[in-house]
C-alpha cells in the first residue's frame, strides 16, 4: 500500500471514529448536533475554519432534508472526499438506527403498543414538538408577513391534511417570500471551495429529480410493496424543509392512513426517537422495522437519507452563487415561515389528539415541557420521566 493510500485510509478511519463517537453522544436534536459538530470539528480538531463551517450550515439549512446529517456529510466530504461523506454519515447515523430497529422489534414481538410507558412516550412527543415550534417561531417568523405565512400554512394543512398539500404550501410560501423579500438586504458575499467536480454534482442533482419523478410511476405500474415503501420514504426525505421534526407529518400521512402501522405505534416510535442520540430522521428505521423487520428498517433508512446525500453532494460546488442571491434568500424566508405553520398543524394532529386524552395527560405534558424548556434537562431524562409518568397514569 503506497503512502497516499495509507493516508487516505487513515483519514477515513479517523472520520469514522469521530463521527461514531458523535453518533453515540449527540442528544438534543439538530440544533444541538450542530453545536457538537462545531466543538469537535472546528474548535477541537480544526478540520475547517469558522467561515467554512458557517457556510456549510447555511447550505444545509437551505436544502430540504436533515440539516445536521447534511452538515456531517459535508464535513466528511471536505475531509475525505465522497467516501469521507459516506463514512461520516454511517458513523453518525448507525447507532440510533440500530437502537430504533431493536426497539421496533421489541414493540412488535411483545405487543406493548397499549402499555402505559408507550402512552408516556406519546406525551413526550407533545412536549418535544412544542419546544421545537417555539424555538423555530422566534427565529423564522419575526415579522407580521412571516407570521401570516405560518398561519396560512397552519390552516391549509390542518383542513386538508395530505402530503401533497404540504408540498403545495411550501411552494406557495416560497413564491410569496420571493415577492415580498426579493429586495432583502444582502449580507457580505461569502465563498468556500469544495472538493467535488461540478459534473459529478450535476449528476447527483439529476438523479435526485429522476428518482423523485420515476419512483411513484414504478410504484403504480409494478404494484411492488418494496417499491412503494422505498418511494414513500424517499419522497418524505426529499420534501422536508425545516429538519427532523417536520418529517413527522409527512411520514404520518404516508404510513398511518394506509394501515402500514397504527397511530399508537407511530407516536410510540417518535417518542423513543427522542431518547436516542443522532439524527431524528432515523425514526424511519423504526417505522421500516415495524413494517418489515430489520431489513425494512435498513431499507427505510437508506431511502429517507438518499435525497439528503444527493442534494448535499449536488449543491456544494454551486452554493456560493446560490447563497449570495437575494431572490433565493427571500424564497427561503417564506418557506421557513411555512414550516412553522406545518409544525403547529402536526402538533395538533396527530400528536395532541392521540396523546392528551385526560387532564392528567396535560399535567404530565406540562411537566415534561418545563423540564425541556426551563430546567434545560437532557432529552433522555425527559423521555425516561415521560415513560415513568405514563406507567403511573396507567396504574391510576
UniProtKB/TrEMBL annotation:
The chain crosses the membrane at residues 82-105, 117-137, 149-180, 200-218, 225-247, 267-287, 294-319, 331-348. InterPro entries: Chr_Tranpt_l_chain, Chromate_transpt. It is found in: Cell membrane. It is a multi-pass membrane protein. One of its GO terms (molecular function) is chromate transmembrane transporter activity. The keyword Cell membrane applies. One of its GO terms (cellular component) is plasma membrane. The keyword Signal does not apply. Keywords: Cell membrane, Membrane, Transmembrane, Transmembrane helix. Its main location: membrane. Belongs to the chromate ion transporter (CHR) (TC 2.A.51) family. This is Chromate transporter. It comes from Nosocomiicoccus massiliensis.
